[in-house]
Amino acid sequence: MDPVLRAQFKQTVFRFDPLPVDWPAEFAILTAHDPEGMVTDPADNQVADHTLAEELRGAGYRLHRIIGQSSDGAHQEPGWAVTVGLPGAIELGRRYGQLAIFYIRQGRLTLVACADGEGEDLGRDFRAV
Q1: How far apart are CA 92 and CA 56, in angstroms?
Q2: 3-state secondary structure string, 22-60?
Q3: Residue 65: closest CA among 81, 47, 88
Q4: Rounded to an integer, what is the distance from CA 93 to the centroid of its chain?
Q5: pLDDT score for 61
Q6: Planar angle of CA 52, 55, 60, nearest 5 degrees
Q7: How far apart are CA 28 and CA 87, in angstroms?
Q8: Overall pTM > 0.90
Q9: Cα distance between residue 57 and residue 62, in whole Å
């Protein structure tokens, strides 16, 4: 992954309504917006988001809306907290043209490149601002 994009991904903060009390401690954060890191027409992003959500629901996964954004809020991408394992999350990221996904274990945030599955523990709780 491009080092500039990696640095930007590492600064992502998340906005969301509280997760359900029975939400598992391990889950992925996926988006279908801006495939291949290219700014995409908002209408196309909405269609991709809807398609991803329908695919996930159809496969029986639990979803919870979550917004990933730059620390200054200038860039925002709606996505989904999804109760899917890491291999499945990487595969979904690849299929939707994503450069990376986020994976959470026990509240800890990991950035995972979709190209090679390489993960980097970001050293913080995913709820941290």
Answers
A1: 9
A2: CCCCEEEEECCCCHHHCCCCHHHHHHHHHHHHHHHHHCC
A3: 81
A4: 8
A5: 97
A6: 125
A7: 10
A8: yes
A9: 7
Q: Give me the pLDDT at residue 2, please.
A: 85
Q: What phi and psi values does residue 94 have, to the nearest 5 degrees?
A: -60, -45
Cα gap 42→29, rounded to integer Å? 20
Residues of the chain with confidence (pLDDT) below 50: none
DSSP secondary structure string, 6-20?
HHHHHT-EEE-SPPP
Joined together, the tokens standing for residue 67 give 């917004």
Give residue for tokens 């986020």.
102
Domain ranges, ordered by start, for the chain: 3-17+24-125
Provide the 3-class DSSP secondary structure of residue 118.
Answer: coil
* pLDDT score at 98: 97
**pLDDT of amino acid 84:** 97
Residue matched to tokens 């359900």 = 20
Amino acid at 89: A
81 within 8 A of 16, measured Cβ to Cβ: yes
Using a 10 angstrom Cβ sphere, with 0-12 exposed, 13-18 middle and 19 or more buried, the burial of residue 54 is: exposed
Inter-residue contact 71 to 14 (CB < 8 Å): no
